[in-house]
Every structure is written in structure tokens, then in C-alpha cells.
Design brief:
Blueprint: H1 3-24, H2 38-43, E1 48-57, H3 66-82, E2 87-92, H4 96-111, E3 115-120, E4 130-139, H5 164-173, H6 191-203
Parallel strand pairs: 2-3
Antiparallel strand pairs: 1-4, 2-4
Helix pairs in contact: 3-4
Length: 224
């Protein structure tokens, strides 16, 4: 084999090896999705527990009693304090009339349209009662470890507890710990302004709001 053929064979082999390496190695996608900053690592350690906050209401042919109305009022107060998502009324199929009365009572107390009624089998209901409640969330407190010597920074890394105090404060102060698990539902869009703007646009009119004195850039004539 001549020197020219040997060199050509080596180059072809190197090219094939390079192509196989490119095929087996994924392209650089940037930082790993599993990577987290030091502070985010502490935020991920916040554990949120959930538990139902419920009351049982006996079914009365005459509707809600005074004690039941008071219990609903206390439940709505706790629901508002917890900033929970919805109130659920689980009623046996033969207690639909009272379930509607409970829904109206909850709406009057401030729950509005955030009340949902679900039907349950009378045999599965607790003593044939109506269950009313919501899910309450609670963040567990975080215990930070011991602080090491903060002056020893020879390896140029953050301290072991960096970010712990911030995460502990968030866990202790968050109004609704469910916000640490998922974002809140979006409120419905306000279509009033949109319809007004589209109506003017279709007529060829100016869609912006009328300019008033507060939006003008006139220099004040007050005596200095």
C-alpha cells in the first residue's frame, strides 16, 4: 500500500468516526431542565399538605336550620381566609332541593359562582347527610441547618444554607400554599372594552380613548 493510499484511508476512517460521534451525541440544548439555582433548590424543598375542611349537614324537609346556616357562615369565613378555589356540595340524589338551598346560601355569603354541586349515592353518603367543604393547603415549615464559617470561601461556592431563610419565610407567609403547587385560574376576559374598540374599528372611527386634561403634556402655569 502506498503512502498516498494509507493517508487517504486514515482520513476516511476519521471522517466516519466523526460522523458517528455526531449522530450519537445530542446537540447542546443549554442548561439541563433538572438544573436549579441554590435558591430554587430550597424552594423545591417546601412541602405542601392538603386536607379537606368539611361539614356534614343533615337533610331536613323544611330546609336549612339556624345551626346549619351558622355552620355554613363559619365555613365560608374559613374558605375566604384560605383563599381556596371552590366550595363543593356533595349531596345524595334525593336531597337536591336542600343542596340548591345550600348553594344559594353560600352564594349569598360571598362564594358567588364558585360553588359546585355533585351528586352521590345515598347509600354512600355519611348518614345520608350533605357534605360541604373545600380543600385546605398548608406549607410545612423549613428548618435551616447550621451556618459554616462564611469567611472560608476558598472554593468560591455559596454557603450550604444559602436561600434557606428566603424559602422558609415564603412557606411561613404565603397566604395560599396552593400557589406553590400550581398557578391560579385566569379570570374571564372583560369583553366590554374589546367590543367597543371593534365596533369603532368597523365604523372607521378612532379606537383610542378620548384625551383629557390629565393626559396632556401642557406645562403647568402655576406661579413658581
Amino acid at each position: 500500500m502506498t503512502l498516498r493510499i494509507l493517508v487517504k484511508t486514515v482520513l476516511v476512517g476519521a471522517a466516519v468516526a466523526g460522523l458517528s460521534a455526531c449522530a450519537s451525541t445530542p446537540p447542546d440544548q443549554g442548561p439541563s431542565k433538572l438544573a436549579a439555582t441554590e435558591t430554587q433548590q430550597w424552594m423545591d424543598r417546601i412541602k405542601v399538605d392538603s386536607a379537606p375542611d368539611e361539614i356534614l349537614l343533615a337533610v331536613h324537609t323544611g330546609g336549612l336550620s339556624a345551626n346549619q346556616s351558622a355552620a355554613l357562615e363559619a365555613l365560608v369565613s374559613r374558605w375566604m381566609e384560605a383563599e381556596a378555589r371552590e366550595l363543593v356540595v356533595a349531596a345524595p340524589n334525593n336531597a337536591g332541593a336542600m343542596a340548591i338551598q345550600i348553594r344559594d346560601r353560600l352564594a349569598l355569603l360571598g362564594a358567588g359562582s364558585r360553588v359546585r354541586i355533585i351528586g352521590v349515592d345515598p347509600a354512600a353518603a355519611d348518614q345520608g347527610a350533605i357534605r360541604v367543604g373545600f380543600v385546605r393547603y398548608e406549607a410545612r415549615p423549613i428548618k435551616c441547618g447550621r451556618w459554616e464559617n462564611l469567611t472560608a470561601t476558598r472554593d468560591n461556592t455559596v454557603s450550604e444554607n444559602f436561600g434557606c431563610a428566603m424559602a422558609a419565610n415564603i412557606a411561613a407567609q404565603v397566604a395560599n400554599p396552593e400557589d406553590l403547587l400550581r398557578p391560579r385560574d385566569m379570570t374571564p376576559a372583560d369583553t366590554g372594552r374589546r367590543d367597543t374598540v371593534l365596533g369603532k374599528y368597523r365604523k372607521g372611527e378612532v379606537t383610542s380613548s378620548v384625551k383629557d386634561d390629565q393626559a396632556s403634556g401642557v406645562v403647568s402655569k402655576a406661579i413658581q
